[in-house]
Sequence to fold (344 residues):
Amino acid sequence: MEDIELYNFASDVLLAITKDLNKGLYSKYEIDLQLVFSTEDKISAHAKILDNGTHCIVISYELIKALYNDAFGFCNFIRENSSNINFLNFFDGLLEFPLLPTSFTFEDNINNMFLNSLTWIYFHELGHLVQKHGVIRGNVLDIQEYNVNDDSSEVKNEVASLYHVTEIAADFYGVNIVIRELFRHWYGRTNLFLDSNYIFVCGITLCFYRFYGKRSLIFNSHPQGTHPHPIIRAELALPAITEQIDMIMKSHLPPFMDRKMLVHFLNRAGLSASLYWYSRYEMDPSDLLSFVMKGVLNREETKTYMRTIISTWDSISSIIETNSLDNNKFSLLQFSDQFRSLLK
Fold:
């Protein structure tokens, strides 16, 4: 897809969403939501509140291009390695499913991954605005998203904890809306709904790895900087997606997969994205096991980190719930009792 065609496609989709939000959610509060496309020469997205109270989401054209290139590169990587025995061995222990959905064409898989990633980022930024995360952060009016590689390690302790937990809350908000929209779009067609979410997991995982870039994989046991480690974000997003899809299937869709099948199905998506990003950026084979997602419960550093995150969330969640413009309780970050108990 040519750049201008890509930009027009992306702007048509996001401007339509913005228009619907202004007619719906935002009309209740007499606040305007504005979408701005930035020509700055870097991959970036951020949410801000203008002096007149307007809520503004800014997305750079460079980000749009990067997301499409990631989707294109990933799908080609999977196609090229679909019969590579050494590659397929990484999936031993997981139930067998195609590594790219066969219910869509190859081109549709690329476009769907790109669109899911783009809309998730948009709704992530929207989550910052509607849940008023800037207020929680001390009346910060501009929340940067894709500048994580420039984070200053000087942001620590309680301030860093507030930044990290509101990023995770925005991740959760974006996940919730994307899955709801996929359910609405594919209602009654369970196989297409599931395949779309497989592609979504691939796409959102690539979004988080794009934060990772070429940095060394170092996990801190306490929040530092303004954003969580991207692999931690991916490890939290995957079970959140799994839980929401499982709930939808039990309530609204005919049986298609049991829970074990769903877990294996989506974990294959996350693993395939991890292997793609590793092959793209990592040269040392000894880094592979630390690079691939393991789950936050499988490292002592991340278990300690999550205790701080949950404690911080418990201290602010009632404030966010009370002040949020979006009253859908399922859009609010949640940590189950079981997850909490496993951290002890």
